[in-house]
Amino acid sequence: xxxxxxxxxxxxxxxxxxxxxxxxxxxxRQIKDYYFVYRVHWDAxxxxxxxxxxxxxxxxxxxxxxxxxxxxxxxxxxNESLDLPQNW
Length: 88
Description:
Blueprint (H helix, E strand, L loop, with lengths): L2 E6 L5 E5 L2 E11 L2 E7 L10 H15 L2 H5 L16
Antiparallel strand pairs: 1-2, 2-3, 3-4
């Protein structure tokens, strides 16, 4: 999956568009020093968005914004089983 583009929205949210879901904008919100998926405006033209897709979107956006270290150090990461790519 690739992050095609992102932009700031009102109230400091970020809207991201991903190549696997080009018709479904993803809204991210900041918590502490990293971003997480807040809402997906899913479009029926795209496949269903699964949990692993959401996690990959968070990884890609946080890497793009330079907040990946904070994202990887969050408390819940130790309780989750993320399938991180080899380069993380």
